[in-house]
Amino acid sequence: MVGQQLVGWLLYLTENVTGHNYHERQSEGRGKGKRNGFGGGVNHFDPSSPLYEAKDGKLILLSDLGLVLVASALFMVGRNFGWTNLAVWYFVPYLWVNHWLVAITFLQHTDPTLPHYEPSSWNFARGAAATIDREFGFIGRHLFHGIIETHVLHHFVSTIPFYNADEATEAIKPVMGQHYRSNVEGGPIGFLKSMWTSARMCHWVESCEGAEGENKGVMFFRNRNGLGVPPQKMAAPVDAKEAKSE
């Protein structure tokens, strides 16, 4: 969890860590042979990345130019005012922003109660409902514009502006019924506690043991810490030579 909070955003940008890994499906063929991870050819700074279409290339280069200019300015600041000052003025705040960006995104989509779906069971409504609203008090509602408190709504109608999001969230609650999920217990302290809970309980997803039919495509988080519903008892893999001899 510490590594996630320190460099999670950077790893997402450079290696697409936690992003989808179906790059072969890219319609222009830009994802052939590419994969997430170090050396996989998938990042957010490369105009030829399968994350973009060819028409986006010039915009990515323009963005890269902006990053080079910022990096150059930071270098000049470090050289003229000292690298320790630069670390205090820029890199510590950068890590603080990284922490909040990753924490909020992580807790919007990760909770022991949230389902995940195989393609055979997924549809838009199910996928959009697979998120959770939380509470972060004054900071969440006024400084973060309700991004923590109204994220379920955002999944369904992303064009609603933040100043109407609270009203719209109340409107969708009776429509969604039991499928609307929220965890507002403890306010900001509860939000921070949820980081630890989710990090301990949400390691991978699998269908419930004994599930049949469409329910086999509905998966929930399991973990190696013995918390919550235990993982399925999977049969040991059969050695290929043994299977052939039988």
Give a quick rundown of the structure.
The protein has 246 residues and is mostly helical.
> What is the CA-atom radius of gyration, in angstroms?
22 Å
Question: How much of the sequence is in beta strands?
Answer: 5-15%
Secondary-structure content class: mainly alpha
Span of the ends, CA to CA: 45 Å
Q: What summary fits the major beta sheet? A: 3 strands, antiparallel
Silhouette: globular
The number of helical runs is 9
Overall pLDDT level:
89
User: How many distinct beta strands?
Assistant: 5
| Secondary-structure element pattern, one letter each | HHHEHEHHHEHEEH
Oligomer state equals single chain
Spatial strand order of the main sheet? 1-5-4
Low-pLDDT stretches: 240-246
Fraction of residues in helix: 40-55%
List keywords for this structure.
6% strand
3D architecture notes:
- This protein is mostly helical and 246 residues long.
- The longest helix has 27 residues, at 83-109.
- Helix 2 (57-81) crosses helix 3.
- The chain has helices at 2-15, 57-81, 83-109, 124-129, 137-143, 151-156, 165-176, 187-201, 240-245; strands at 116-117, 133-134, 182-183, 204-207, 218-222.
- The protein has a 3-stranded antiparallel beta sheet, with no helix packed on it. Strands 2-3 form a two-stranded parallel sheet.
- The protein has 9 helices and 5 strands, in the order αααβαβαααβαββα.
- It is globular and about 60 Å long.
- 48% of the residues lie in helices and 6% in strands.
